[in-house]
Amino acid sequence: MSQRILITKYNYNLTTNEFKSLISSVAQAFAEVPGCIWKIWLIDEQKREAGAVYLFKDQMTLDEFKASPLVSTVLSHPSLSNFNFRETDIAKEPSIITKAPLMDMLVASL
User: pTM of whole model > 0.85?
Assistant: First the structure.
């Protein structure tokens, strides 16, 4: 199975410092998500908008993540709203050329 990207976007209604503290407090839980190779946290302080880009090992682990209690907790958080989730495939060859952090793809291409 091929790796999958998940892109999320949402708004927060906390101060930026409070929001950064919140995401720092849950970062380890996201680091332990089975099948998630990495997560990049995104923030636009002016718009009070945040999100993430995830790399999952396959569609199955991405689907399991979306159905997890961790995601349910985030979606029901009273300070977060307007969630948008988008899944996509990876254009492997140009991503390797542009040094995307797709380590097992790099090894497979050698």
Answer: yes
Given a contact cutoff of 8 angstroms between Cβ atoms, the answer to whether 74 and 39 are in contact is no
Closest CA to 88 of 5, 3, 2: 5
Residues 41 and 80: beta-carbon distance below 8 Å: no
The CATH number of 4-109 is 3.30.70.100
Segment 78-92, tens digit of pLDDT: 999 999 999 999 998
Q: 3-class DSSP state for residue 57?
A: coil
Q: For the chain, what are the domain ranges?
A: 4-109
Residue 35 CA to residue 61 CA, distance in Å, equals: 5
Look at the block and give the residue holding tokens 């993430």: 52
**How many residues are there in the chain?**
110
